[in-house]
Specification:
7-stranded mixed beta sheet, 0% helix, 57% strand
């Protein structure tokens, strides 16, 4: 079984910073990419940032220059450093991993439980 566990969310004032962490554990054979998505109340879940095992990244336009994604491949961990936070960043942030559990298993997306990030004065 595969589990993704997120941490680091909380309440922060506009202009502040938070660092989210996500650890993937279980029967993991190969990870293609890991990333972060977010969903505000009444809105669709949207991509925030992703990073492949090889190091390629992509970011939502709304967070470029403010957020930085990084990975520790040996620990199957992905981070999201969030700086200059704005009220519109308020959402539940979900960790995502694109992985397979082995040659006999399909490539599949897994999700964490989500962590709340609230930006408010």
């Amino acid at each position: 079984q595969v589990q993704l566990v997120e941490s680091g969310g909380g309440l922060v004032q506009p202009g502040g910073s938070l660092r989210l962490s996500c650890l993937a554990s279980g029967s993991i054979f190969s990870i293609y990419s890991m990333g972060w998505y977010r969903q505000a109340p009444g809105q669709q879940r949207e991509l925030v940032a992703t990073m492949s095992t090889g190091g390629s990244t992509n970011y939502a336009d709304s967070v470029k220059g403010r957020f930085t994604i990084s990975r520790d491949n040996a620990k199957n961990t992905v981070y999201l450093q969030m700086n200059s936070l704005k009220p519109e960043d308020t959402a539940v942030y979900y960790c995502n991993a694109d992985l397979t559990m082995g040659w006999a298993y399909p490539r599949k997306y897994y999700w964490g439980q989500g962590t709340q990030v609230t930006v408010s004065s």
